[in-house]
Amino acid sequence: MSDKPNEQRPILTTRQGHPVRDNQALRSVGERGPATLENYQFIEKITHFDRERIPERVVHARGTGAHGYFEAYGKIGNEPASKYTRARVLNETGVRTPVFVRFSTVIGGKDSPETARDPRGFAVKLKTVEGNWDLVGNNLKIFFIRDAVKFPDMIHAFKPDPVTNRQEPWRFYDFVSQSPETLHMVTWVKSPWGIPANYREMEGSGVNTYKLVNDEGVACLVKFHWQPKQGVRNLTGAQAAEIQAGDTGHATQDLYAAIERGDFPEWEFCVQIMDDGDHPELDFDPLDDTKRWPEDQFPLLPVGRMVLDKNPDNVFAETEQAAFGTGVLVDGIDFSDDKMLQGRTLSYSDTQRYRVGPNYLQLPVNAPQDGARARTNQRDGQMAYYVDDAGTNKHINYEPSGLGGLQEAPKPAKDYHQWVEGHLGRYQTSRTLDDYRQAGDRWRTFEDWERDELVKNLGDDLRQCPEPIAQRMVWHFWHCDENYGRRVAEAAGVDLATAQALAPLPGKPAPHQHRDVPTYTDGKQEGGNKATEPAAAK
């Protein structure tokens, strides 16, 4: 580690040698506006990151999957679903939409243990009558960062050291100590919620903020969530170690065995809805992925259910070649200006074209269902094994044409149009109060044993970190909640008074503590967080 003062460090540049003057934010139209295509610095950074490993996924390498179906209730809460969206998959009852779901860990390699303390991927491909809809998320409802330009840095800090090839705690905490927005996710991941007992007893979330659009062209903001009918169960570090001693793939086995014996796992699909707009009355930006929408203000509204009832016939052909992308949406579901969503939409599909090939959508696991077969003018490329349906004249692979070929679909009677106005630049959100408040709220709503486990895990980690990093983390936790910071300081062997005396991070506003506790559900209506006996004992 370098001890050079900042003014003596080399300057960060792009691969073209251009100095990077802002590595914290995408270029966007105003603070909340959409990102722009000429984000060259980001595109160069993220597309190189997408190609860092072959052929294994850079993230979410360890995974398992299953087939099933989705059924809509035709309502969102007590209202007809059509009030909010024209998406047929959410409106039509009596239709079983085929799905393929891939569960995964994030940081570890393909053969890493499924007991790792790590977020879990929860990616769903719905093969609707209007084409594929991919809902790509995690088990937790939030994320570490809120701007996609930081994603490669975050993963690099969490991955093994490029010199020692070991995951070093100091690298993780060095990054998060400089990024207060991560505190909420750190509080979740270092608690028992960081080790789900298995994939069946695990929540899922789209994480990003999307929009629903109805027939009138009116949009609302939406968050998507999967609530397990089996209840939620997590593991302590000791329980996970006991399982890992005998089985590194316990969650894969658990899912496979449950489906084989006919114990089909089921999730209820729920949404949270908010009017489209800035919402200045909130202390957080609803487009900020590091924040939860409090459920007492924005309740979980049931929309449908998903059942997994068939294991893959071949793991490689299906689970490993399954390819998901946040840009794969159907009419009636649209993008918000969530900067993580905007960045992921480029990155995910770009990764699949590189990892699996430009024709990855011709693979059966990825192709839309027969009734929504792809008809494009795209041709050739590596591993092409059929030509997309070209319409009435196979000689015509362009549009427009007066001699046949494909034509544009009819436009909706009323489409959604977003007014965009602002100065082009790099902006970080100005609503940062909840960087500390939601982490503190989470601490106060944990059960006693969850707080004990969280403090132990943080203390064990921080004792392995250089003193300045440990002190800064204690400073952060103390500003989330005084008791939180005090207990972590004791567990980590950090002098609390010394940590409290630190100045705020340069360029970051001073945090303020808060005591209002929001309403969270966390699956507890369906059995709660049952971290009792290890999963292997069930």
Radius of gyration: 23 Å
Q: How many discrete domains? A: 2
Shape summary: globular
- Broad structural category: alpha+beta
Mean pLDDT equals 89
- N-to-C series of helices and strands: EHEEEHEEEHHHEEEHHEEHEHEHHHHH
Largest sheet: 10 strands, antiparallel
Span between N and C termini?
Answer: 45 Å
Strand content: 15-25%
Residue share in helix: 25-40%
CATH architecture of the largest domain: Beta Barrel
The CATH top-level class label of the largest domain: Mainly Beta
The overall strand count is: 14
Protein name: Catalase
Binding site for heme: 348
GO biological process, one term: hydrogen peroxide catabolic process
Biased composition (Basic and acidic residues): 513-527
Structure notes:
The chain folds into 2 domains: 8-374, Catalase core domain (Catalase HpII,  Chain A, domain 1, Beta Barrel); 446-505, no CATH class. The protein has helices at 40-50, 88-91, 151-158, 169-177, 183-189, 237-244, 250-260, 316-320, 339-355, 434-445, 448-462, 467-480, 482-492, 496-500; strands at 27-29, 63-72, 75-76, 79-80, 97-105, 120-128, 131-138, 204-205, 210-213, 219-228, 266-275, 301-310, 333-335, 424-426. The protein has 14 helices and 14 strands. The model is unreliable at 523-528 and 530-538 (pLDDT under 50). It is an alpha+beta fold and 538 residues long. The longest helix is centred in the middle third of the chain and has 17 residues, at 339-355. Helix content is 25%, strand content 16%. Strand 3 and strand 4 form a beta hairpin. The strands form 3 sheets. Strands 2, 5, 6, 7, 8, 9, 10, 11, 12 and 13 form a 10-stranded antiparallel beta sheet that branches. Strands 1-14 form a two-stranded antiparallel ribbon. Strands 3-4 form a two-stranded antiparallel sheet. Its cofactor is heme. GO terms for molecular function: catalase activity; heme binding; metal ion binding.
